[in-house]
TrEMBL record:
The keyword Cell cycle does not apply. The lineage of its organism: Eukaryota, Metazoa, Chordata, Craniata, Vertebrata. This is DMBT1 protein. Residues 1-92, 116-160 form the SRCR domain. It comes from Crypturellus undulatus. Its main location: secreted. The keyword Glycoprotein applies. Keywords: Disulfide bond, Glycoprotein, Repeat, Secreted, Signal. GO terms for molecular function: serine-type endopeptidase activity.
């Protein structure tokens, strides 16, 4: 419920350009994923640049649509963007996991160029803690890491 927005189309994942992307668009995505209300939307590849095709540009949702398929846009694959303009968002998460493909669980931290994720776990809120900084993912050392630190991470990731 937080991270770069990607769509699965014709067998591959693609991104959404930040041109015109706003809180109404984010609200539709959050609703479609079952993530609750949208808190914020982000552009300029805040959650990293995607690698597949740019699939949507100039997305224009009214805000009450049930899915992105009901929103207007220039057409799938028609864009004037690069991955430096990939859109992302943040939603309020409930106690149940969203339906659909697994989430990356990236989360903004004190610095706008850092994100957190849990990887190689058996659930949405279980796994090895990694931090994205200066363009790459790295692990977090466990020296001094305790339950208070874990509580902060869990809250930041929307895991309770």
């Amino acid at each position: 419920c937080l991270g770069r927005l990607e769509l699965f189309h014709n067998g591959s994942w693609g991104t959404v350009c930040d041109d015109g992307f706003d809180l109404r668009d984010a609200a539709v995505v959050c609703r479609q994923l079952g993530c609750g209300d949208a808190i914020s939307f982000h552009g300029r590849a805040l959650f990293g640049e995607g690698t597949g095709p740019v699939l949507l540009d100039e997305l224009a949702c009214i805000g009450d649509e049930e899915s992105l398929a009901q929103c207007s846009h220039q057409g799938l694959g028609i864009h004037d963007c690069s991955h430096k303009e990939d859109a992302g968002l943040r939603s309020v998460t409930g106690k149940t996991a969203p339906q659909g493909p697994p989430c990356d669980h990236a989360s903004p931290s004190a610095s706008p160029d850092m994100s957190l994720r849990l990887v190689d776990g058996d659930g949405l809120c279980l796994g090895r803690l990694e931090l994205f900084h200066n363009g790459s993912w790295g692990t977090v050392c466990d020296d001094g890491f305790d339950l208070r630190d874990a509580a902060v991470v869990c809250r930041q990731l929307g895991c309770g």
